[in-house]
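Sharing in case it's useful to others searching the archive later.

Someone asked me privately for the predicted structure of GLPGLI family protein, so I'm posting the question and my answer publicly. Question first, with the sequence:
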Amino acid sequence: MKIYILIITCLYTTFLFAQNNIEGKVTYTISYNKANQKEIVETENNKQAIKAINNSKDITASLFFSNNESLYKLDTPMENDADQGINLTRTFAGKGDVFYNDVSNDIHLLQKSNAAGKFLINKKPITWEIKQESKKIGTYNCFKAIKKDTLNSNNKTVAWFTPQIPVSFGPKEYNGLPGLILELEHSLLSYRATKIKLNSKRPVRIEKPNAGIKVTEEEYRNLLKDYFPGFFKERKK
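And my answer, the predicted structure tokens:
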């Protein structure tokens, strides 16, 4: 156990010094975890839901990072994909959402649009518990981490990060680990880093989103409750 803690401490120290000198782009492939829907029984009432689950297709998203900043968003679907109706993977992955992080200033923003309007949500930083488990993903040595507020949940948020790419970023709002997140399991979706480009000749430019009503996460939830009261009453049942 002491050796494990020493290794993590050394990796984190390396991470602190190296993060300012690396930039790149990561492509994530996002998959819908159909196996998690086994509890759905095929009856006349939910055949449409099962059809939608079976028809869900993988999508991709891009993470751009430079120094202490990152920007994450879903890739634009191909024209023929966009014409095939609802894709649950894209729906649950947050189509149109833009995530921005500035770790040096502890800024974590989500730009989101829906029927209630356009918002710029100030997200809280995520806290993790790093485990002793490790595995190899491609050529990278990775460590396991679990989002702390999901430790006792059936739907744990599990990340695999590599200190070999010493940046504190990952898909969506999942940041704050001493290394790039290469895999993430969250609720109904799985995220896999399928392409990584580091320090290419073309510099990465990140623009901080600034459009939308500025709110905290709590203020945003309260706004949704006021705008969609029926939806939240249904969820309480």
